[in-house]
Amino acid sequence: MRILLTGLSHRTAPLATREALSLTRDEVPGALETLKSHVGRGVILSTCNRTEVYTVAREPEQGREALAAFFDEQFGLDSRVARQHLYTLEQDEAVTHLFRVASSLDSLIIGESEILGQVRDAFGIATRHGGAGGVLAHVFHSALRTGKRARTETELGKNALSVSRACVQLARRTLGDISHKQVLVVGVGEASRLAAIAIRDAGATAFTVANRTPEHAKELGAELRGPVASLDEMAHLIGQSDLVVSSTGAPDFAITRDLIEEATERRGDRPLLMIDMAIPRDIEPDASSLPGVTVHTMEDLGAIAEANRREREQEAGKVERIVEEETERFQHWWDSQGVTPTIANIRHRAEKVRAAEVAKTLSRLDLSPEHEERLATMTKALVKKLLHQPTKILRDRKDEAFTQNAHELFGLDEE
Fold it and tell me: Beta strand pairing status for 50-57 and 43-46?
């Protein structure tokens, strides 16, 4: 039994490929059902910068092929195209990777705060759909503990530039002082909300929230103290705005080049900054060629990430040590899972032999209940002492071949 991970991220795939292999929160349950037909249980972690599938397989090679087949079926891609961007990790490497992801060490921006919640959500969705029990539950609980330790025991997250905070930097770089700028927030998902809050905290006060269903935008509108609107009003809304932040989760472009061109006809020289936080993208890429229009995507955050990386290297080293500790802790648990049932079976077999021999002896003797109890107690103590050393060595060695030898020595496979 081995833990397997197959996926892609900003480190291995360009934005267009990440878009093609991304899943919205609403799409994950259906994908989990597809995954079940290939590998059974699994957890799917899909964020703006990664899509990863975690599972457990008895035969690793078959598991790798099954995961590749899942990606082919789920995303409709030729495996030759997809596999050049996919990585597959096994056991310790997969566990360490997940712990680094949960600790934000593998994020586009090291130290960002959103990823730990995204890992928790992925595990929660899989759990509700019966895909994250047993070993996967243990490894994800361990990952969440690792991520929490990274945030509480180090300064990695202190003043860390999250994706949403990076939006503020991009806005100031293009628009200067944003305190008097009109901000349009498109979509009411977590990415939009976090970016809007960061922009508000940076001084912006004039917000409009647009959503396909305006009713669903009222809560965020109230939080930002701005009106809500329908996507049908998009051209008018963009025409009024200085900054547009979009993350709708729509499968196609929610904001086309033609719509932006229509919206900007009467803007004059006023610059328009559009930040597309969606995967797949909300804003048609050609829009950046329009006069006065600047479009940034998640990929543009990479430069900001690099500029802020050096100052967090020391704290990242501390988090790496936490990841090492937690990986070793998980490995001890994993090793014990192979040994513990063997030790339990040895003790069970020994108890069966002891009980049978005591019963045979008692049938030939005429002992009082008190003496019968003493005999039972004595024989139990004898078995316990005889098994103490071999079971202790088994537990300490945690060696698969050595454990199999114990099976043969004690005749466990004969039962």
Answer: antiparallel
Phi-psi label, residue 14: left if phi above 0, alpha if psi -120 to 50, beta otherwise = beta
d(Cα 372, Cα 120) in Å, to the nearest integer? 56
- Name residue 4's beta-bridge partners: 55, 90
394 CB-near residues (< 8 Å, 6+ apart): 339, 342, 343, 402, 403, 406
Show the tokens assigned to 246.
Answer: 């979009």
Strands 43-46 and 182-186: unpaired
Per-residue exposure over 309-325, b if at least 16 CB sit within 10 Å of its own CB, e if not? eeebeebbeebbebbee
Structure-token pair, residue 186: 């498109």
For 173, 315, 325, 403, the CA distances from 321, given in Å and listed in that order, are: 36, 10, 6, 30
Residue type present at position 249? G
What's the topology of domain 163-305?
Rossmann fold (3.40.50)
Asked if 167 is an active-site residue, the reply is no
Structure tokens at 237: 């809304």
Q: So where are the chain's domains?
A: 2-159, 163-305, 335-414
> If 0-12 CB within 10 Å is exposed, 13-18 middle and 19+ buried, where does residue 177 land?
exposed
Distance CA 284, CA 296 (A): 11
Beta-carbon contacts of residue 69 (< 8 Å; ≥ 6 apart): 38, 79
Spatial neighbors of 51 by CB under 8 A, at least 6 apart, are: 7, 8, 9, 18, 21, 22, 23, 44, 45
Question: Which tens digit of pLDDT belongs to each residue from 335-367?
Answer: 777 777 888 888 988 999 999 999 999 998 888
Token pair 């098994």 is found at 387
**Topology agreement, domain 2-159 and domain 163-305:** no
If one counts every other C-beta atom within 10 angstroms of the C-beta of residue 107, the result is: 23
2-159: in CATH 3.30.460.30: yes
Point out the catalytic residue in the list 5, 48, 150, 229.
48
What six digits make up the tokens of 305?
């990430």
The structure's pTM equals 0.67
Range scoring the smallest mean pLDDT among 56-60, 309-313, 389-393: 309-313
Indicate the burial class of 67 (C-beta count within 10 angstroms; 0-12, 13-18, 19 or more). buried
CB atoms within 10 A of CB 46: 23
